[in-house]
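Why this split exists: single-chain examples teach little about how molecules sit against one another. For that reason, every record in the complexes split bundles all components of an assembly together and asks for one structure covering all of them. Below is a record exactly as it appears in the raw files.
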Amino acid sequence: MVASRAIGSLSRATASRMLRCPGYICRSFSGTSALRTRTHINYGVKGDVAVVRINSPNSKVNTLNKELQSEFMEVMNEIWASDQIRSAVLISSKPGCFIAGADINMIASCKTPEEVTKLSQEGQRMFEKLEKSTKPVVAAISGACLGGGLEVGVPAAFDMMLTGRNIRADRAKKMGLVDQLVEPLGPGLKPPEERTIEYLEEVAVTFAKGLSDKKISIKRDKGLVETFSFTELTSYAMSIPFVRQQIYKKVEEKVRKQTKGLYPAPLKIIDVVKTGIEQGSDAGYLSESQKFGELTMTKESKALIGLYHGQVLCKKNKFGAPQKEAKHLAILGAGLMGAGIAQVSVDKGLKTILKDATLAGLGRGQQQVFKGLNDKVKKKALTSFERDSIFSNLTGQLDYQGFEKADMVIEAVFEDLSLKHRVLTEVEAVIPDHCIFASNTSALPINEIAAVSKRPEKVIGMHYFSPVDKMQLLEIITTEKTSKDTTASAVAVGLKQGKVIIVVKDGPGFYTTRCLAPMMSEVLRILQEGVEPKKLDALTTSFGFPVGAATLVDEVGVDVAKHVSEDLGKAFGERFGGGSVELLKQMVSRGFLGRKSGKGFYIYQEGVKSKNVNSDMDGILASLKVPPKSDVSSDEDIQYRLVTRFVNEAVMCLQEGILATPTEGDIGAVFGLGFPPCLGGPFRFVDLCGAQNIVDRLRKYEAAYGTQFSPCQLLIDHASSPNKKFFQ
Amino acid sequence: MTWVTGWPLYGLTLAAQTKSKKTLAKPNMRNIVVVDGVRIPFLQSGTSYKDLMPHDLARAALSGLLHRTNVPKDVVDYIIFGTVIQEVKTSNVAREAALGAGFSDKTPAHTVTMACISANQAMTTGIGLIASGQSDVIVAGGVELMSDVPIRHSRKMRKMMLELNKAKTLGQRLSLFSKFRLNFLAPELPAVAEFSTSETMGHSADRLAAAFAVSRQDQDEYALRSHSLAKKAQDEGLLSDVVPFKVPGKDTVTKDNGIRPSSLEQMAKLKPAFIKPYGTVTAANSSFLTDGASAMLIMAEEKALAMGYKPKAYLRDFVYVSQDPKDQLLLGPTYATPKVLEKAGLTMNDIDAFEFHEAFSGQILANFKAMDSDWFAQNYMGRKTKVGSPPLEKFNNWGGSLSLGHPFGATGCRLVMAAANRLRKEGGQYGLVAACAAGGQGHAMIVEAYPK
């Protein structure tokens, strides 16, 4: 429509002409490697610019492994040695991924810290050579560029090293991580992704040429730390040792507070940066590689790598593609869960009906979805236009209109079996034959819900966690009658919603709720024994739980917790005993429902951040007080009483076949219940801590409290033969 | 222009070939004709029209049309104008202009908006009124004044001012004033970006050119062609739709002032205007901000003949299309061309005069490549084969929006009149008009020469 000529002619002064590159030549330079075919890297020459293409075979992403590193060095050495080449462009042939970082398998296969240190040093040498390159090197990055991948492209960033967060391209430009942005292209004469990479290469080649011809200069002369979070003034301040010491101290304090000292890596990173600044880069590099080597051998590293692999596994649909892809969803109940499920569905393009019984309830749910999307607009993750167009995927209604087109109905009505029966019958009268009925329940057995269904093979459980848009886990529950295609479809929808999925068998509390219940029962007993909620919270978070145990009850909702513990108490009897449900009952009768009612163990007020203990609880707690047993009431004992009951129940779920694999058990516990990630999940914890140690603990508490702590058979088996591990 | 030879010279032989259809007249449908059309000279914004208001330009075009056609004002049934950036004081600019131009105050008028194809929408709205028998005589036109655009107070400021209106007591007023912050004064300019994507059109054009691998040099060469052809047409007096406009307090404007043939060397010196520093779209290969207005007299054929007119052309089949406003913002002509040809039962070979709206050189050349690509036709348009790109020797022979200028709301009528006048001058039966528009929309129409 318009290009302002006035603006254009003002900038007429400097000449900039598109450089036209003559033919594209592909050749090898050094005699020795001329015949060698490389698997990860190949390169060609455009004019006097070498174009190095990274493309790891048989993989969606490029990772920094030994072969890639050595091939890369080989190619770079040829480029540096060649007279014809004056600059180089690094680019990935994979759309959407430059280099995703170091190869985890490569690190996991190392047996000693020295091995890792050596690997790390090789990597450092590569980056150092690249940094000191006499010929300009332009990295053309499209998509994921993480960890070591980022180091190939640009010098690493201070705060990125600490948190490993993802940075969007425009922000990276602002931070000075990248010098130029190339926006993705639309369709042309070939697929957009292909042409975009080509275009990126063309632009990068022009830049590389400009750099070697000294027509373009790059203003990025500041070192590692200065470039990022610090301005001119602070960079002067950083040159004063005293100020530096203060900054180290502050950063360290902050990190300690965030990690509770449970994750060793961030503190070591600070150490390394400190060494680098105080003793020069050589010492810094040496320290970096050594510390890295040490870190990879820690239990925490093994636990986190295990979780990474588990997560990758739980992001796949092992049930195959469903016969009919679900495109139209209908959600019953616009409460916190229903609206949350709607939100993660509409933003993936699923047409979603949100039905509630009342206009007020529906309006609240619609507002929740809108707010969730609008918060993303505020963070600039979405434009307001995208928000509106996503929001138009949502239809709010009070009746069953349009259900005849639904491929899947997810009910999230109140946890009451007769209510669930009623909606199931109502829905089955209006939905098409292929439509799946999924129940979002945290404890009601699916087969009991399915009992009134005309087609139980289409009924399944989909247990989401609150808040749905933040919690990654989805627990899918199959009954004996649920068909494989129904399961495949539920997993497909869950994956589309961005969930990490475990598929478990039906039973009271399924897997997650069942593990949590005995631990919650223990929480009540501990409170009854006189431990303050704040103290209990401190003990659990310092063990690695992201949320304190008392706070968790408030967050889940006291009424829900009561409901669950009564239900599961009936199903499992004495083993789920411990604390008295009476405590929860009295809280409910006083209206202390937790965060949602403003009062629980704590008081919640809008705009008040600091949490104050609800003093009205004192009376209730005093009336239900039981004497503590001194030999099992040390801080550590309290922590282990909680965690061993959790772990014992998890192992029992595997023993009974509720869980199919220990991996799913770990993923479910960590992503759904906040089991400490640094321990890797209950099964990894047993492996790393030793089954015998866990059994010993349980026996000790069993002596004090009885069968609630009796170790399950599978755990005893593992303890009696030390070779038995959940993960080999 | 060396590269022009790259296009096969079909045209020389084609004129003699027989057409797929002798005429596009349809049984039981009224034939609709354009009696004549005019425009005031298109000027770069900020020049002679800069102190006027949009309805002043529209009024000048309407007076020019009255003068040119001598149509009795009471036979005009309806007046429709297109405009894009609206002056808030004259939101129905068609009515304000008509009243001042001496049309009857009994003739209703309305204003339409559809970005760069607003005047096309005005014409086709008129066609609809005639075809359905509601009207016999329509005036359609368009206007744009980019020298003055409505710049608003910020939303916060506006809100405060409106609340101040309602405040009754001094206390209420003072409490409102106390909420005032300096940033309330930051003005709001009319959006130059797509609302849906926040991307400016030039930026999108640059990405489009890159997607179709259109080089900077090709774009500059095309822009130079447009300016050279426009200059030639102006010098030879071919731009007969232009009517002089005596600007109050200034000299009479008689010709377009944006035609500036330069040299490729000069053009190559410009820096990219949108994607810096490596983009290819520059001020020299883009259309410029323009002030101008156009108007046309459209009638049912029998009415025109009864009134003793010799019409210039038939207005035949037309289509509107729309597609992805982000990555295909400016590909309207690619989508519209095969569709309108199919509708009319014609092929590319039947067309003697192409008049496409030139938003950017890169946009025109990308459309050529898209129209010439089977891959694009199959993967994005759901068509089996490509439609083919127009032969350059029949294409925008008297210049285009790049050189003549592009007053958003007025360009559509210029395109149709250029096609009609070229068919009369160069001989030939069918003309094809096509244009892209913001919002990812597009339009095409077949113009058939009126037998001499």
